[in-house]
Amino acid sequence: MTSRSPIVFGELLVALGLAGLGLFTIIGSQDISTGGGYSQIGPRAFPYMIGAGLLALGGILCWQAVSGGWRNVPQDEAHNEPDWLAFGILSGAILLHMAAIAWAGFVLASTFLFILIARGFGSRKLVRDIVVGLVLSTAAYFIFTRALGLNLPAGLLGGL
């Protein structure tokens, strides 16, 4: 009979990373100017809530990682082996999106991101993924730029 270590180091690292991201979000929110609005809820409220949520979840997962491992993790064959190809596609898609958004624009970069993310999750319907990605990213672009007044890079489609 083998005894399992009460500390699962991989899960502990992920939990510490999550808590660190929450702490980084809270500290980074200090740089947001509050403006002079009459409302008690300013632009720092949502980053604070997100940072606090990440910090709380990281704390809970840390506690579980040092007390035998995360709870309620499915123990089937699909979760035994990591899918490194999907992980690589998803990671590459995010890095490519960050690199391309300035010159390609939000709509094209986000459409390509959607296509790669769908491929990473196993989709093999390229035309459907292009159409859905284009519709979603175009709708998000117009909501953010027209309705909310935010400035997103138009990129190659800027003249249209």
UniProtKB/TrEMBL annotation:
Annotated keywords: Membrane, Transmembrane, Transmembrane helix
Q: Where's the DUF1468 domain?
A: 13-153
Q: Where are the transmembrane segments?
A: 6-27, 48-66, 86-118, 130-150
Name any one Pfam family assigned in the record: TctB
UniProt entry tagged with the keyword Chloroplast: no
Reading the lineage from the top rank, the first entry is Bacteria
- Output this protein's name: Tripartite tricarboxylate transporter TctB family protein
Organism, scientific name? Noviherbaspirillum saxi
